[in-house]
């Protein structure tokens, strides 16, 4: 009888991490996920971290279910779903004893992942150095090197400017103009403005406390932080894609997330081969 597969633990389940999780799950890895208690993903329809709030969520046919302990995680995995534990510090490592840990928090800095957490460790984007705090780093910057596996050194440093889409970069991302509770609004037709809506520059797309949040460009509201979320001034709360055809893709994994996911699969298989570790 085949020995049960070891866990691959992914820290984080935002929209980019979801691209990693879905690709690993579909490739046959036994995946578990950890998240914080109040994830602030704006691309909610393409982010498995919504399971923290809803108990379960599905992206592109892969269901993620919130669980409370390692035993429940095993049962959910056996049923073909991805278990998610609210465990910001990844304390579950001691119980799951994963063969690999993938830090997909994308905080632009290392929030506690180290090489002693698992035989294989991978970090996404800036904040990690391959050969020091992780075994490999996957590039997350849009461009020629997106998804590249780095075995020595670090990813491209964070520029603080989003990648260019249809000629727009920083304008695509909207930050909270004040601190307060996120409130949704209605458009001129009485419809709630939410992800997937076509918006125009200057349109009120939400409110933070009593302060209106204005669309910065014309386009598709691709991301909007959940209603009721207590935001601090400056927090990223919305994302507009200038390409109107993207309204059909708001609940699917982005090209960037897929590329990063492919890089993680490559990193895990390459490192597992070199370390003689069976992951699949």
Give the helix/strand layout.
Elements: E1 7-11, H1 15-26, E2 30-35, H2 51-54, E3 56-59, E4 62-67, H3 70-78, E5 82-86, H4 93-96, E6 100-103, E7 120-124, E8 129-130, E9 136-138, E10 149-150, E11 153-154, E12 173-175, E13 180-183, E14 198-199, E15 204-208, E16 211-214, E17 219-224, E18 230-231, E19 236-241, H5 255-275
Parallel strand pairs: 1-2, 1-6, 2-5, 4-5, 6-7, 7-9
Antiparallel strand pairs: 3-4, 8-11, 9-10, 12-19, 13-15, 13-18, 14-17, 15-16, 17-19
Helix pairs in contact: 1-5
> What oligomerization state is this entry in?
single chain
**Within the largest sheet, what's the order of strands?**
3-4-5-2-1-6-7-9-10
Fraction of residues in β-strands: 25-35%
Strand/helix succession:
EHEHEEHEHEEEEEEEEEEEEEEH
Categorize the overall geometry.
Answer: globular
* Stretches with pLDDT under 50, minimum 5 residues: none
Q: How many β-strand stretches?
A: 19
**SS element count, helices:** 5
How much helical structure, as a percent, in the residues?
A: 10-25%
Largest sheet, strands/sense/barrel: 9 strands, mixed
Describe this structure in words.
By secondary structure, this protein is α/β, with parallel strands linked by helices. It contains 5 helices and 19 strands. It has helices at 15-26, 51-54, 70-78, 93-96, 255-275; strands at residues 7-11, 30-35, 56-59, 62-67, 82-86, 100-103, 120-124, 129-130, 136-138, 149-150, 153-154, 173-175, 180-183, 198-199, 204-208, 211-214, 219-224, 230-231, 236-241. The chain has a 9-stranded mixed beta sheet, sandwiched between helices. It has a 4-stranded antiparallel beta sheet with strand order 12-19-17-14, with no helix packed on it. It has a 4-stranded antiparallel beta sheet with strand order 16-15-13-18, with no helix packed on it. The longest helix has 21 residues, at 255-275. The mean pLDDT is 95.
């Amino acid at each position: 009888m085949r020995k049960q597969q070891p866990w691959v633990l992914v820290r984080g389940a935002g929209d980019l991490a979801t691209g990693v999780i879905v690709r690993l799950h579909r490739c046959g890895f036994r995946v578990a996920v950890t998240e914080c208690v109040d994830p602030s993903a704006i691309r909610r329809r393409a982010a498995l971290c919504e399971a923290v709030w809803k108990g379960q969520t599905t992206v592109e046919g892969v269901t993620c279910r919130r669980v409370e302990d390692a035993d429940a995680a095993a049962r959910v995995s056996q049923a073909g779903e991805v278990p998610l534990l609210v465990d910001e510090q990844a304390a579950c490592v001691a119980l799951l004893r994963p063969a690999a840990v993938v830090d997909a928090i994308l905080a632009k800095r290392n929030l506690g992942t180290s090489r002693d957490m698992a035989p294989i460790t991978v970090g996404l984007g800036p904040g990690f150095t391959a050969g020091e705090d992780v075994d490999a780093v996957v590039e997350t910057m849009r461009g020629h090197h997106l998804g590249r596996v780095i075995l020595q050194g670090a990813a491209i440093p964070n520029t603080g400017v989003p990648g260019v889409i249809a000629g727009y970069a920083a304008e695509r991302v909207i930050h909270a103009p004040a601190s307060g509770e996120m409130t949704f609004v209605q458009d001129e037709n009485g419809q709630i403005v939410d992800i997937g809506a076509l918006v125009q520059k200057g349109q009120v797309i939400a409110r933070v406390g009593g302060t209106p949040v204005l669309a910065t460009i014309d386009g598709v509201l691709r991301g909007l932080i959940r209603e009721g979320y207590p935001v601090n001034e400056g927090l990223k709360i919305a994302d507009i894609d200038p390409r109107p055809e993207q309204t059909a893709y708001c609940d699917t994994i982005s090209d960037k997330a897929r590329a990063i996911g492919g890089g993680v699969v490559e990193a895990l298989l390459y490192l597992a081969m070199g370390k003689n570790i069976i992951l699949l």
